Structures are given as C-alpha cells and as structure tokens.
C-alpha cells in the first residue's frame, strides 16, 4: 500500500514538472558605473532588475536558484540578492556561495513573475575592472532531486573604470551566434560595419576557454573541446573595445 501511494505521488510530481516552463527576462545584463562614495551601500549599490516568468498553465512550486559564479574585483561586494520571497543580505549570500546552496523561490502563480535582482556594491575607491554574477534557475524532474528537468541562466555584468563599454546592445542583429543551442561547431556572424577582429569565449567561472580571429562576416568556431553548458562570447574590435557579448549553449 505504501509503495502504491509513493508511486502515485511520484507520478503526480512528474505530471506537475512536465507542465512547468519558465523564462528569464534578460539572459545577460550589462551595466557601467564610476563607483560611488562608499557611504551607504543600500542606496549606492548597482541594482539590476531581472525577472523569472511562469510560462506554463499551472503554478510553479519547486523552482530554485543557485549562484553559479560570483567574480568581483577587490573592494566590490554582492550586497543583496532578491527573489520573490525576500532580499537576502550580504552575509546570507556569502553563505549560499560557501555552501553551494540551492535556494527555493516562493510559488510563482500562472501569468506571474519573480524578481531575480542582484545589488552589487562598487565603491569609487575599489579596484577597477569587470564583475560578473551568474545565477542558474532550475527545477528537478522528481522529488529525489537527482536530475534537472529544465534550467536557464542569467549573467549580470558590471564594469568600472577604463574597461570599455559595449558598443551595441545584446539585441542588435548585427551580431549573431548559431546554431544556439549547438554541438561541436558554432558560427559567429558579425556585420562588416562593426570592424570585428577577434572573439573570446568564457565559461561560467569567467575563464577564457577559446579565442580566435575574425576576418569575415561569418566565422566558424570549433567548440568540440568544450563541455556541455553555458558560455559567453565576447566580440572585440580593432581597438580592443568590446563590441558586444552573446550567450551560447552547448548541448
């Protein structure tokens, strides 16, 4: 009898999971700051407003998020991180990072959304550079939580000092990556008007895993050596300025 009840519960859980789907409003967000006086982090932190949307016809009750990577220059801090339950403090966020924690969202009703909002503290006296925060949003196939049914990532980038700004935004069709998701080979399209000269591929830890030159509108990139996962592709012009960044998923 107990086995039958457990089986029915597992079937019910699987049915709920199969009906769930969500989207993230911005896969990549990119902000630039000159830094702030450093007197009041609550008021001065760079706040990046993003959302997770319930795209299904049922409430999502088992969605979680996890900080995959936090790479900030010296003197910066991930001051808070907010979802639809609360804004977690810097000390709580540090614990999440240290413990590799998976943090549950509150139930997201049909047609509703949750905040996915970091606040990054960048005092003017802190080091210049580029800070990156990557968060994974996901849910499991069943209550054993051994296999992920669906996952998406959001990457938040903050720049300070003489590190350059993106020349075009992330929706500009003059740069494209295809197929996306893809397997061993990807193609990088860059309009000739952008004077793109090179590219860099970053993993979620911020490490450069591939580089190459751009000499034509369409560049073939051999990605066979890369592991399955999410990557960022930065396109660079002849003056070493970052033209734009694109997200690519390897299946």
UniProtKB/TrEMBL annotation:
Supply the name of the protein.
Secretion system C-terminal sorting domain-containing protein
Keyword Signal on this protein? yes
What is the superkingdom listed in this entry's lineage? Bacteria
Instruction: Provide the Secretion system C-terminal sorting domain boundaries.
Output: 177-245
* Keyword Signal in record: yes
Checking Pfam families in the record gives: Por_Secre_tail
InterPro entries under this entry?
A: Secre_tail
Extract the signal peptide range: 1-19
**UniProt entry keywords in alphabetical sequence:** Signal
């Amino acid at each position: 009898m107990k086995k039958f009840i457990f089986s029915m519960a597992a079937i019910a859980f699987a049915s709920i999971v199969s009906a769930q789907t969500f989207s993230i409003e911005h896969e990549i967000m990119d902000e630039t700051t000159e830094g702030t006086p450093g007197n009041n982090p609550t008021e001065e932190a760079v706040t990046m407003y993003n959302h997770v949307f319930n795209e299904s016809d049922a409430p999502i009750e088992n969605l979680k998020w996890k900080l995959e990577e936090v790479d900030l220059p010296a003197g910066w801090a991930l001051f808070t991180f907010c979802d639809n339950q609360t804004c977690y403090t810097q000390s709580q966020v540090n614990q999440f990072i240290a413990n590799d924690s998976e943090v549950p969202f509150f139930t997201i009703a049909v047609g509703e959304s949750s905040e996915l909002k970091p606040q990054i503290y960048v005092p003017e006296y802190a080091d210049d550079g580029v800070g990156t925060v990557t968060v994974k949003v996901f849910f499991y196939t069943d209550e054993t939580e051994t296999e992920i049914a669906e996952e998406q990532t959001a990457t938040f980038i903050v720049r300070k000092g003489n590190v350059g700004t993106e020349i075009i935004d992330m929706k500009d069709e003059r740069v494209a990556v295809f197929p996306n998701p893809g397997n061993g080979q990807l193609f990088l399209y860059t309009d000739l008007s952008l004077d793109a000269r090179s590219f860099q591929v970053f993993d979620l830890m911020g490490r450069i895993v591939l580089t190459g030159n751009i000499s034509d509108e369409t560049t073939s990139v051999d990605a066979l050596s890369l592991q399955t996962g999410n990557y960022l592709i930065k396109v660079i012009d002849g003056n070493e300025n970052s033209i734009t960044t694109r997200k690519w998923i390897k299946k």
